[in-house]
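User: Good morning. I'm curious how magnesium ion would be positioned relative to this chain. Could you predict the structure with it bound?
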Amino acid sequence: MASLYHLAPLTPRDDSTVPMARQQGRVLAKVTNYNALRRDIGVKAIGRVMQDMAARLRVAMPDAEVEPVGRDVIEVAFSIAEPAALAQIVVKCRAICGVPIQVDRISCLPKMAIAGACAPADGDSTLLIERAEAALTDAEAAAAPRTRPAGAVEETVVAEVDRALDRGEMVLHYQPKVHIRRQAIDCVEALVRWQHPQRGLVLPGHFIPATERAQRMERLTLWTIAQSIVDQRALRTQGHDVRIFINISGHLLADAEFVRLACACIAAAPDARLGFEVTETSVIRDPDAAITHLREFDRIGVRISIDDYGAGLSSLAYLKQLPACELKIDKLFITQLTSSNRDPLIVRSTIDLAHALDMEVVAEGVETQAALALLSVMGCDMAQGYFISPALALTPLAAFLAAEQHRQATQDVRGSFTRRAAGWKRG
Ligand code: C2E
Ligand code: MG
Ligand code: MG
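Assistant: Good morning! Here's the predicted structure, ligand included:
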């Protein structure tokens, strides 16, 4: 897996009786895809990216000395009270360098390896630099593509996604989730799209499954988290405070390094209000790791939602072990809701059971007024789907929220029950 976070503390562990000396520390942040970036955005633009990144590090760490060294490395020199503080500095640098940088109106997210070392303040600083460089070499090796064999098609897609991230071609669209009773939009789901220069807007179905099979979703997901935080702030300045839900692939849920990086990125933005959507199948793959990691996300304020519920085989009672507060019923059951005999039964019993377990229920794939009306009668809490709104780019989303456009879809619902819906209410 792409470990981008390494430490090389120098202080020996066996002399714990000696009072801890103040430490000097070095963190090295290296752009590992410098050549690809230079080819894509040009040498001038990458120079600006490096300057911008150094400037951000200086603002965030005013007591540190931050200098670009060579074309692709930034060195951060600082002083800390004890070696244990080094990890926090590395994580902080990682979070700062994980936020996309705007160059010529392109959002650019370089691939970084970040590593550090520390030594007693009166120690040998040449040795300190050598240790920091060695830690950086380890971090780069760990960040190299994983050994799990991926097919040629998958490798091509992964490389294309990487390049798209380098060039700032990935964008997030947001699909509102409307609260049916309150007729309000409190949250949206971030759905990634690739704004391809030739092919136009490419939907995730064309590149996410292959990237997931290659187990290489880490970079795209960290970008999605960082970009959601930026977009959420932009919405807030326009008066719209919505929680943003992000889809998290199954293999990442068992990946401790990803969890640490994601938590660092979120902790660096105390104003962020996020949620993660995870599928039941991803939890079942490695339940112990998934539960531990979901609890960590829950602890830092990330709300957990179970996506595509019903598509797998798990029982709700089992899922209750997770710190999830939301259940999204798979659109498979919702798109056929008013034309099938079986689906309304399943949906209604799922809603009742989820409520008994203290979870809110979202129906995804709501395409018609009849479906929304039936869901409203069944007591479903939230609805998401083309009938309310497709996923929208940030500017149209702000306009949609400002105009309270969702009310067009929700206000007539209560008066529009079909006989079928009324029948379900009685039943
Ligand atoms: P999902 O998370 O279950 O997202 C719902 C998908 O259903 C979205 O497709 C959405 O546009 C579509 N949809 C929304 N309303 C309706 C409706 O009324 N009817 C129908 N038939 N479909 C509707 P999209 O955007 O193509 O995303 C497909 C899948 O790609 C997502 O399924 C999610 O699993 C994955 N995905 C998207 N963005 C990300 C991401 O950033 N990270 C990860 N890991 N996966 C993502
Ligand atoms: Mg989802
Ligand atoms: Mg879904």
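The radius of gyration is 24 Å. The chain has two domains: 2-8+21-143, 152-426.
Let me know if you'd like a different ligand tried.
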